[in-house]
Every structure is written in structure tokens, then in C-alpha cells.
Design goal:
about 300 residues, mainly beta, Immunoglobulin-like, Mannose-Binding Protein A, Chain A, five-stranded antiparallel beta sheet, about 10% helix
């Protein structure tokens, strides 16, 4: 049987999780074959479980889906919209405990799942947390969409006092991801707060001043960075045209932006801000750049 695998945040699966609306969660993973080849344009069967408390905890929700990978081997699905096996995604109390996503995959499109991966939801999306946690109301008086510390708040953690802000305007509308040569900088972080490390790695490895990461690192007080793919999506959803919180495009965000999440020496993640689609693009492409930072 053909051996297949995915690459977890811990090097077995490259996955991205983020809030889409309060009723679903988007998930992406790159599926590869035994020879490190991408499984392109192929239907795969998947069972997704939300586990409570630990990586071996009880499943509070399970569903199945049969998505199709794209030309880059990327599979995209929305957890909460599949065929329900057990539980109710809309009633999960995200404030009650820690949660993990377990994925089981059949590369032939059936239900004989041969690939398994589990990763923790290290930071529950604000839009989901706010549905079940009364304590999410900030004692600091902060809210998503407001101007704060020289930027626009696009993410708040469960305390409502800390989160992420985006610069009030674009730092470039035509920046390339690379700085003149193809190289793998190992900027693989995809989750919240991981763009800062990505940016340091990119600039350390490739140097220069004209790449998307360098432009962000040189903005303002030098605490700003190029957002990871998850951070980028939260900008789209919460202060952009995604409008998950009903605020509209308060960030005045453009058509598309580079993320700091790298795929390999030639490709990196980018998001279309007109429709929310994410994919990997060649690093010589140009796109908008918007810096972010934590507070």
C-alpha cells in the first residue's frame, strides 16, 4: 500500500485553523506522498474530531468530509459543515477547557483512514470564544475594530486585554516575498503570534530591505512583523471584507496580502481579501503588505 503522510505543526502536518464565523472553523493541510510528492487534485476522505482536555481526550464533536486537494496538495475544509458523526459543534464551550483537533485521512477518498494527526488549538478564536464565555467581556474596555496603540485591534484573547493590532494602512501595495533569490528560510509558523518568529527567520536568512518581511520589520517601533497565515485570516474576518463580526472593512484592507508562512524555497502563503481564499504563491509575485504586532 502506498505510504502517505501529512506534516503537523510539529512537522507531521502543515495545518491552519482559524475562525470563519461563530458556527464553523476553517482548516487547511498539505497532503504528501511517501516520496514527498504532493497529492494534487485528488479527493481524500477525512474524519475530524474535536477532543477535550488532551490529545487523547474524549471527542465532543466528530464529522466526516471528502474534500479535494488543489494543485499544490492543499486541502481546505470548514469544520462544522460536514456530515455529523456525533456531537454539536455549535454547543462546544470553548471557555471550559483546552481543545485538540484530530484528523484521520483516507487518501483514496474512502473511510479507511490511514493517516492520523492531532494538534492543539493553542488559542481559541475570539468569535467562537465569545459565544460561550461570559468573561470574554473586557475589563480593559477594548474591542475588535477600535484604534489602539497606533493600530487597529483585530484579535483579542479570552481576557479581552491582550491581542493583536494591524497597522492603520498598508506598508506596500507591490512587495515581493523574496529578496532576490530563492531559499527556504524555515518560516513555517502558521498560527497566532507565530508571524513574529517567521519574520525574524526570513530577515535573518535572506536579509535586505525590500521583501515583505523586511518592510514590516522596519515599520514603526520595530516591534511590527509580517503576519502568519492565521493572523492574516483573522484580519480578513474581523476587520476586513470577511465581516465575521459585522464590523465591515474597518481596516480599509485591500485585495490581497502576503503572509509570513512559508511553504518551501519557491512558495509562500497569501490570502485574497476579496473572497478569503488562501493559497501558496511564487515568492516573486507582488502583493499588499500590512504589518501587525502584539500588545
Amino acid at each position: 500500500m502506498k505510504k502517505l503522510y501529512t506534516i503537523l505543526a510539529a512537522l507531521l502536518l502543515t495545518a491552519i485553523t482559524f475562525a470563519q464565523t461563530p458556527e464553523k472553523m476553517s482548516y487547511q493541510a498539505v497532503v504528501r506522498g511517501s516520496g514527498d510528492n504532493l497529492l494534487s487534485n485528488q479527493v481524500v476522505g477525512m474524519q475530524i474530531s474535536i477532543l477535550q482536555g488532551s490529545a487523547s481526550g474524549a471527542a465532543v464533536y466528530e464529522e466526516t468530509q471528502t474534500p479535494t486537494t488543489n494543485i499544490n496538495g492543499l486541502v481546505t475544509l470548514e469544520i462544522g459543515t460536514g456530515s455529523v458523526v456525533s456531537g454539536d459543534f455549535t454547543t462546544i464551550d470553548w471557555s471550559a477547557d483546552s481543545y485538540f483537533i484530530k484528523t484521520e485521512t483516507d487518501p483514496t477518498g474512502g473511510t479507511s483512514y490511514t493517516i492520523t494527526g492531532t494538534s492543539q488549538l493553542l488559542s481559541v478564536p475570539y468569535a467562537l470564544h465569545a459565544k460561550t464565555a461570559e468573561s470574554v467581556t473586557s475589563t480593559c474596555g477594548l474591542s475588535i475594530g477600535e484604534t489602539y496603540q497606533g493600530g487597529i485591534i483585530f484579535y483579542l484573547d479570552a481576557s479581552g486585554c491582550h491581542g493583536l493590532i494591524a497597522a492603520p494602512g498598508d506598508q506596500s501595495t507591490s512587495a515581493a516575498w523574496w529578496n532576490g533569490s530563492y531559499m527556504d528560510t524555515r518560516a513555517y509558523g502558521s498560527g497566532l503570534f507565530e508571524g513574529k518568529y517567521n519574520t525574524k527567520m526570513i530577515n535573518l536568512q535572506q536579509g535586505g530591505t525590500t521583501s515583505a518581511a523586511a518592510i514590516c520589520a522596519n515599520y514603526g517601533d520595530l516591534k511590527w512583523y509580517l503576519p502568519s497565515i492565521e493572523e492574516l485570516n483573522l484580519m480578513y474576518e474581523n476587520i476586513g471584507l470577511g465581516n465575521a463580526l459585522g464590523l465591515g472593512n474597518v481596516g480599509n484592507l485591500g485585495n490581497g496580502y502576503w503572509s509570513s508562512t512559508e511553504y518551501d524555497n519557491g512558495y509562500a502563503g497569501k490570502q485574497n481579501f476579496n473572497n478569503g481564499n488562501q493559497n501558496y504563491f511564487i515568492k516573486t509575485n507582488t502583493s499588499n503588505v500590512r504589518a501587525v504586532r502584539a500588545f
